[in-house]
Write a structure and sequence with these properties.
By secondary structure, the chain is α/β, with parallel strands linked by helices. The chain has helices at residues 29-40, 62-72, 89-96, 135-146, 177-187, 268-284, and strands at residues 4-10, 49-53, 79-82, 109-113, 116-121, 153-157, 192-197, 204-208, 211-215, 222-223, 231-234, 238-245, 248-255, 262-266. The protein has one domain (4-284): 4-Layer Sandwich (Purple Acid Phosphatase, chain A, domain 2). It is built from 6 helices and 14 strands. The strands form 3 sheets. It has a 6-stranded mixed beta sheet, with helices on one face. It has a 5-stranded mixed beta sheet with strand order 3-2-1-12-13, with no helix packed on it. Helix 2 links the parallel strand 2 (49-53) and strand 3 (79-82). Helix 2 packs across helix 3.
């Protein structure tokens, strides 16, 4: 690795085909992404890569991803994509990668870039809000963690791990608790610089079993974390600029100006019931 490496973290793009009306899209995410890509183009030194940590589109259609691909042509910086709960594997593979086979396979991949080993894990679970890691993904991850042991590693997953010591009632916000525990055990001693995530729509930094977990607000809307009785979404967007030095990782946030106007409210009971119904259906299946 050079003396320092710069990268960008974007998340929760939630773009959609502008030709299709979407009552669940509460801001002009295509415009926001275009603005942020222009800002990224002014960063010095030029970033080695961009991490886009999931919810790339709002509906997950093939045309949505084709629209996203057109927007991303505005940057010549390599982009590493993760999938989130708003994404669909079929739509992503067809619209972004022009891929016609294995359309339901999880999108797990890793890259050595800028002297770093970046591992991208697909925590999306079709039909569910929360994140999961399947047994075969753990096997894949363990093999990739063993690779390039001399390089510091960044782990990317749309859902951050569960931070507490017991399952949280708001389990749709994280990777499933027991799987989070297994992940923590697997990462011990692996030279993990950070885990980069999104999903919860607010900037949050944690230290989890000694590993920084960096969650970005994203580009669609911001969660009002001062409101606990409902999930209140307000106008807001940001992205992060990471610098890796021999001494470690620094993240600087770039918030976009916002009046914090309310965009939407969700009943938390509804979200809990929806997730539990999806989990029950998956278990029965």
């Amino acid at each position: 690795m050079k003396s320092s490496v710069t990268f960008v973290h974007i998340t929760d793009l939630h773009v959609g085909d502008p030709a299709v009306s979407d009552d669940h899209l509460f801001s002009n995410t295509s415009e926001t992404l275009t603005s942020i890509l222009a800002m990224i183009g002014r960063i010095e030194p030029k970033p080695a890569f961009i991490i886009a940590s999931g919810d790339l589109t709002n509906r997950g259609s093939t045309d949505d991803y084709r629209h996203l691909a057109r927007l991303m042509q505005a940057t010549d910086v390599p982009v590493l994509y993760a999938l989130g709960n708003h994404d669909t594997r079929e739509g992503f593979y067809q619209g972004m990668l022009d891929r016609a086979d294995e359309l339901t396979a999880s999108y797990d991949h890793d890259h050595v870039i800028g002297g770093l080993h970046v591992i991208v894990l697909d925590t999306s679970t079709p039909g569910q809000i929360g994140g999961t890691i399947e047994p075969e993904q753990f096997d894949w991850l363990e093999a990739r963690l063993d690779a390039h042991p001399e390089l510091p590693k960044l782990l990317v997953a749309h859902h951050a791990p569960a931070l507490g010591e017991a399952p949280d009632w708001a389990h749709w916000r994280t990777i499933e608790f027991n799987q989070s525990q297994r992940l923590a055990e697997m990462l011990v001693g692996r030279n993990i610089l950070a885990i980069l995530s999104g999903h919860i729509h607010h900037d949050r930094f944690s230290v989890w079993h000694g590993i920084p977990v960096i969650v970005g607000m994203g580009m669609h809307a911001a969660t009002d974390i001062l409101e606990s009785s409902v999930l209140r979404m307000v106008r807001g967007a940001s992205f992060g600029i990471g610098t890796v030095r021999k001494s470690g990782l620094t993240m600087a946030l770039v918030p976009l100006p916002s009046d914090r106007a309310e965009l939407n409210r969700y009943d938390l009971t509804m979200l809990r019931e929806r997730q539990e119904a999806a989990l029950a259906e998956a278990t029965a299946g």
